[in-house]
Amino acid sequence: MRYQKGTDRNVTSKWARQTQMVRAGTMRSDFGEMAESLFLTSGFAYATAESAEARFDGREEGFTYSRQTNPTVAMFEERMALLEGTEVGRATGTGMAAMTAALLCQLKAGDHVIGARAAFGSCRWLLDTLLPRYGIATTVVDGTDINAWAAAVRSETKVLFLETPANPTLEMVDIAAVAAVAKKAGARLVVDNVFATPVLQRPVDLGADIVCYSTTKHIDGQGRCLGGIVLCDKAFDEEFLYPYYRHTGCAMAPFNAWVMLKGLETMELRVNAMVDNTEYVAAALAKLLATTRHPSLPNFPQKELAARQMTRGGTMIAFELAGGRDQAFKFLNALEIIDISNNLGDSRSIATHPWSTTHKALAEESRLELGITPGLIRLSVGLEDKDDLVRDLTAALKAAGV
Ligand SMILES: *Cc1c(COP(=O)(O)O)cnc(C)c1O
Fold it and tell me: Which of 58, 154, 319, 364 has its CA 20 to 30 A from that of 349?
């Protein structure tokens, strides 16, 4: 690894984002390969015993074991950290491994966490079930109500945790306002930025301390590999994240990191093309269904906030069918192009019924409180032809009696 072209932050931080996504973090071996190398190796050999000792002491730069770092994974981490504007990234095996690491690495029994109630189902499980099991108190608040965040703060509050736009209702939380509450409380703000993607929203610029992704979504973007990443500053990494990461073994596999690197090269192009499609599909759906929700629509309740913290409204649409589960299932079963699945951010459009799948683990009243009704459909818009998508949706709505 003597020839490195994309790793000097003094140079790469001056590049435009699209250049960073294609080139930043690249390390080349002496062969001068153009594409990033896939280092499918669990460990690394040392020239001498002294060198092994020095690497373990941190006196010598280099790799030791892929549970800690691996060249392919390190390239992905560096590229993501640069995109996000943080010093450090730690890539994990899944998005949930990233969320869990970001929370557990810094918490201990007796601490308190405040979380937004509208969240990915498994993130809610961390708050509602896992953390309390270890003596970490949690309070779930209406994330849109800034006074509720402030009112929930206690002297033991260490972390505020939110997702925006939230899955699946697209409810938005004011990141800067919650960051101010966190700062005042001496707590850290952790943001799950999956729905927005690094292209459309930069939580660190709004005051977030730690940003997490499921890279399974738009970063891979082609439905191939699971992955996650936690992005933070160096001090947090050294004190909390890296010790947790290396000793609990939540690392991303080198192969998956290689796929993610390839995904990043086209992410901005894909996300922008997907948002173009999403805006077109949302406008068409809105003519048929008043319940259609997307930040680009005139009736979106948090339009001002969306414009303030996101560059565009994202690739997800939600809408509700008055006929509940039966009508939702009829609609889903009538789709010819769009798949019934639970992933999102894929180049293939995907329709999901959160009530019966992704959010089923939540109690019925919690789902209803979040606006997840039996008739709610979540649509992840992909890269197919936009008129084909509208035709498919229109026909399926008609088949379902809309
Ligand atoms: C998918 C997702 C996760 C979890 O990611 P996995 O890669 O599936 O583990 C967390 N948060 C949000 C908002 C997600 O969409």
Answer: 364
